[in-house]
Structure formats: C-alpha cells, structure tokens
Amino acid sequence: MSEVNDNRKKTTYREAVREAIREAMKKDERVFLMGEDVGRYGGCFAVSKGLLQEYGPDRIRDTPLSESTFTGAGIGSALGGMRPIVEIMTVNFSLLALDQIVNTAATYYHMSGGAFNVPLVIRMATGGGKQLAAQHSHSLEGWYAHIPGIKVLTPATLEDARGMLWTALEDPDPVLIFENSLLYNMEGELDTDAGAVDIDKAKIMRTGRDVTILTYSLSLFKALEAADKLAEDGIEAEVVDLRTLRPLDNETIFRSVSKTHRAVIVDEGWRSGSISAEISARITENIFYELDVPVQRICGAEVPTPYAKHLEEAALPQVDTIVQTIQNLIHQKSYV
Amino acid sequence: MYEFRMPSLGADMKAAKLVEWKVKPGDKVNRGDIIAELETEKGDIDVEVFEDGVVDQLLVDPGNKLPVGTVLAIIKNGGEEIIHEVKPAMKKVEEEPVRKERPEISRPGYREQPIEKEHRVRASPLAKKVAADLGIDLKTVKGSGPNGAIEKADVVKAAEESKKEKIPKEVVFPEPERKATEERPFGMRQAIAAAMSRSNREIPHYYLQTEIDMSKPLKWLETENQKRGVKERLLPSVILMKAVAKALNDVPELNGYWQNDQLEIKDATHIGFAISLRQGGLIAPALHHVDMKNLDELMHDMLDLTMRTRSGKLRSSELTDGTITVTNLGDRGVETVYGVIYPPQVALIGFGKVTERPWAENGMLDVRRVLTATLSADHRATDGHRGALFLEALNRYLQDTENYE
Q1: Tens of pLDDT, residues A253-307
Q2: Is A197 inside any structural domain?
C-alpha cells in the first residue's frame, strides 16, 4: 500500500506541464520558453511560475504583444539550431500568428526541398467554460488539424500533460500542443518517474461493447462521466481519447467502432468542417459496413461563445447531452 | 418506380434475347418472382425481379436481342393503386419534351423517385451485410430502430426464427422441357472460351492434390441410405459439397472474388456446381448457402438445380452468385481433375473417380476406396500453405460425416 503511494505523487495538470518544461530545460540546453507574460508574471495561467528565477531571462523570455513576431522568432531560432517552446496565451490569439504557423512553419521543409526543417513547439490554451466570451473561448485545434506539415496534440490526462512535450521537442517538425484551460486546475496522481509518452496513438480509456465515444481534451472527462451514468442503464460505452488530432490514429478508431458498431464523437469545436466531421467521414469511408446506426456528433453550438453562464453551458457539449444522445441511439427513440 | 433492366448473368454476357414475358401490366410481383424468360448462351434463363411492386409497363417486345442494362420494364413499387386515368395525361405533358433532349433517360424513374425512396428498406449498413451473409431478405425483417429502421439485432432475430420454421421440402422433379435452340451450343462455346481464356491469361493458378480415403464416409452413406426410401437417398456428391463448405469455413480465403487487385472474401458460401449439358458445354450454377443447409436440403436443391440446368430453366441469381466452383468428373471415369478457375472466383475444387486402391496405414496394407481431390487456386489470393490447410480440412470433415446435421 505504502509502496504504491511512494511511487505516486499528487499533482495538477498545471504542475505537470511545468514539470515537463523544467525537464526539457534540464535535458537540453537548446530549449527555451518564450511568450507573453511567461517570465515575470509567471504565465497567464501560471504554468511557468518560478521558472524565470530558476533559469534566468535568457531561457524564459517575455515577448512583446505580437504573436506574429514572436512565433516568427521561434521559427527562426528553430532553424538556427535551437529548440524553442513558444507559448501563445489562447488559440484565439494564435490567429495573429496564423501566417507564421501555416505559411512558414508548416511549409518550410517542403519549400526548401528538405533542406530546412522547423523543430518548433507551440503551446497554447484552448476551450471555453470560463465566461471569457466570444474572443477567448474557442476550440480551433480542429482547424490546425487541417494543415499538412504540423502535428496537433491535445493532452487531456496528467500523463500526457507531463509526457507529450518532450516527445514533441524531439520531433523534427512543428508540433502544436493545445491545453484546455479548464484542465490546469485538475488534480490527480502521477508516477514520480513519469516521463515522455508517444504522440501518435489514441488510447482506450474505458472499454465497452455498445458504443464508442471518440473525444479528446476536456471532453474526455465529460465522456467518462457519461459512460459511468450509461453503465447504470446497462449501456457499456467505450471511451477513446484521441490524444493527437493530426495525424489521427485511424487504426484505434476503426478497431473500436468495428467492435461496438456505433460511434459518437464529442468535440467542443463547431460542427461544420470540424475534426468531428473528419472522423465521421473516415469512419463511413472505411468501415461503412460495420455501422449499425448513423455516426452521431456532439459539438459546440454554432454561435460565438456566449458570455452568460447558462448560455455558455448550453453552447458546449455536456455530460447530459452525451448520455441522452447515446440512450436515444440505443433505445431507438430517435436519432438526433 | 423502378426500372427493370437486362441483367448481367455472368462476366461474359453482353446481350440476351427476350423470349417471353411471364407477367403483364397490372400484375403484382414480389421480389424473387420470375417475370421473364431470356435466351442466353447458357440456355433459357428465368429472370427474377428484385423488388416488390406492380408491373406498370413492358417496354420491349419478345423476340428482341438486347444489350445488358437496357430498361425492359417499369415496376411501380409505390405501394398504392396505379391511377390509370392520370398516367397517360402526365406522360404527354412531361415525358415527351424531355425525351427530345435526353432520349436515353427514361423519365418515369426520375419523376417518381421520392416515392421509391419512401418505400425502400431502411436498414443499417451492418444489418445489410449481416442479412447478405445469413441469406435473409430484408423485406421480411421487422425493424426496431427509428421509423422502423432495421438493425443487426433485427436480422439476427429473423434468421433464428426462419431457421426454426424450416422444414425439409418435398423433392419435386420438374417436367423436363426440351427447348434446345440451334445457336445455343455455339454461343455457349464462345462464352466458355472467353471466360477460360481470361482465366488462363490473368490467373496464376497453382494446383494441389491429395488422396482421400472415402471408405468411412461411403460406408456411413450406405448405412444411412438403407434407412431411407428411394426418393430420400443421398448421393456421395452431397457429402462432398457439404465437406467443401465446412472446409471453406476454416479457410475462407478460397471463397470469394479477386476484384480490383484485391481479394474479397465472401461470407456466404454459394458453391458453383459444374453440370455438363447433353448438347455440349457446361454450366456451373450456384447452390446457395451450402454451409447452412442440411444434407436433405442439399440433396433436394442439387437435384432440382441439375434438372433445371439441363432443361434450361435456371434462375438468374443462380448464374451469378457462385463464390467457388466444384467439378466432379468421377462419373466420367476420370481419376484426377486439374480445373481452370472461373473468374472472378479464386478457387476450384476437382473430384475424380472413387477407385479401390492399396492403402498403407500404420504398417498394414488394406484395400480402400480412394478419391483424388484437387485444388486449383489463384496464387494472387492465396498461397500453397492455405491451400494445403483447405485440403487437410476437407479430408477431416469427410471422415466426420456422422456429425453432420
């Protein structure tokens, strides 16, 4: 009993990300962090608190309020042999750096005929639910998953928050890490020797025979809670954490859906042209004859995220919506 | 509304002659009913209709030779009474002006599309797949999903119920009708020539051969037949077919089609059964679902199929459904058959004559009744190892006839 506790420690998602940055700084002196308020303020979500004192202003660098500039500087230093971690406050602000990310970072290896790769990692917060309204609450990671040349990671668990960064830094190409800001305060236990994890496989977080819930990031925990409730009703849901949105792990998705013959995708992003649309399309393209019901999607409502608490809740996927959708699907009341 | 078109009854059929209509406008038809007789290289074929409905128009007169795909008739499957008074008027207004622009498109099918949609079977992709595998007609299945959609569980339930109801049918010998046309043997020769040339050109065949001791299964069959009346007796071919189906269950890669550069394994086991014709040539119509039928059902179906093949009374589905072929030349005194695969199938099983031979086993010499079984298989789809497993399984199941259903 005590032995188990000895190998586990209580931590939070925020501390796990900080620990991952600290490990990378220690292991590789080419690694440095830059972004708005990451130094003296300790990061707008307090992820980098204390790192300036530990590593000094050369490696923990505050930048001007210009996403395009410091993302571009990150690309330049990556080309110059460094291993930068660029932090962008939220995905909404990353749109100012879209040209750097999509036109430069993602294309450079290709445009240079393989001469220059860009080993850059960009971290940013995503997601709604904090009453920050329509310019700070969106989930645009699905957009980035559209772009060839970059990888898109969405760590949900403490293990992934702790382990994905190092693997991303080792990748020769640009990697974007999306951290749902509601997850930073999540508490849990982590192995004391937790370290790097793979970034190319989806993970089955709960096994079940009746329906597959495909999801990622914060929605994973809503899906797991929904699965608990469904189990009381005799419905065994399998929950898959996609973990990486680009490249998608087709194999795990297809294997699970081929087993349960029902697929439900939960995605905070807007429905039209979303990652959930992509997953649904792949399922029907590849394993159409395994489907016993139409693929269902539970997505964010197609409105700018509302400020009012009750409206914001209504606009985002919730546990009850997931439970109800799946009950309808299985008890044949109606499809959504 | 649904357009009944000239069906393709095999890879090499390009056209056929309409001999006669078996229905007239206003007749009610159910899926599987025979609605016309065609004259093809493979004989006169009774053609089944694919949907329930009412015959609306017959567009072609008997005696015409027509290419595959030609619309032959319009079947109304709206489920309602046909309103004869309205129809001709609509035809004049809508049909004629459009015909000038696009003469090849038949308008009724387009105009009535919404009605067809309402009445199509609502079944999930998985339910459709399972229904095809189990040989269940989705039209007979009651759906439990939204708006009556059929899901997998509904099909499985229907299959279980139909199995319970199944009673062995009485063997009926149809009246043989002699109706050999002069051009049939020549046309059939050409069709066989085309299929076999394609097979030899495209399929890298490999051949495996094994000797099977038939003493035990034949003894069992003889004992079994003693208990039966003359009409209920079983022929050795029946246990051979059954054993092939069982062995295919173990090595499914031999049961399917090579299409678009890949092997498509078929879940249903429809064994093409080569039948030679008195006027020359051969046809290998499919015995459907051999794996799911008991020996009595198989015997009945084989006799029925043979009689109808020889009298030129096959149904269209029997010509197109074969997933593998069995050829038995034992009756003709041949000991070993090296067959040519019928594309797009990927294997052919050959059986020779059962002969008495010296047989050594456990250091002892005995005289046994021995059958040579051969496998011709497509090397693109399988390797010799799988083929060998199949022949081994075939032998094992033949030694196990007392445990057949």
Answers
A1: 999 999 999 999 999 999 999 999 999 999 999 999 999 999 999 999 999 999 9
A2: no
- Say whether B127 and A332 touch across the interface (CB within 8 A): no
Contacts of B148 in chain A (CB under 8 A): none
* CATH number 3.30.559.10 given to B184-403: yes
Catalytic positions of A, please?
67, 136
Are B126 and A289 an interchain contact pair (Cβ–Cβ within 8 Å)?
A: yes
Please give the backbone phi and psi of residue B134, each rounded to the nearest 5 degrees, phi first: -90, -5
**What b-and-e string marks burial along A69-106, b requiring 16 or more CB atoms within 10 Å of the CB?**
ebbbbbbebbbeebbbbbbbbbbbbbbebbebbbebbb
For the segment B370-395, what is each residue's pLDDT rounded down to a tens digit?
999 999 999 999 999 999 999 999 99
Which pair of tokens denotes residue B162?
């139909």
The residue in chain A having the minimum alpha-carbon distance to the alpha carbon of residue B155 is A292
Residues of chain A that touch chain B, judged by Cβ-Cβ distance less than 8 Å: 261, 288-293, 332-335
Q: Give yes or no for a contact between B386 and B219, defined as CB atoms under 8 angstroms apart.
A: no
- Looking at A139, A169, A191, the residue that finishes a domain is A191
- Closest Cβ opposite residue B146 in set A288, A289, A335: A335
- What is the count of residue pairs from A and B with beta carbons less than 8 Å apart? 27
ipTM over 0.90: no
Class of domain B2-120: mainly beta
Parse chain B into domains and list their residue ranges. 2-120, 121-166, 184-403
Range of the domain at A225: 203-331
- What's the pLDDT score for residue A322? 97
Tens of pLDDT, residues A105-144: 999 999 999 999 999 999 999 999 888 988 888 999 999 9
Count of structural domains, chain A: 2
The share of chain A scoring above pLDDT 70, in percent, equals: 97
Together in a domain, A185 and A219: no
The upper half-sphere exposure of residue B129, i.e. CA atoms within 13 Å in the direction of its Cβ, equals: 13
Interface test mutation site (partner B, options A292, A328, A331, max chain B beta carbons within 10 A): A292
Comparing CB atoms, the residue among B125, B144, B146 nearest residue A291 is: B125
pTM: 0.55
- The amino acid sitting at A239 is V
CATH code for the domain in which residue A211 is found? 3.40.50.920
Gap from A263 CA to chain B (nearest CA, Å): 13
We find that the CATH architecture of domain B121-166 is: Irregular (4.10)
Query: Residue B277: what pLDDT?
Result: 79
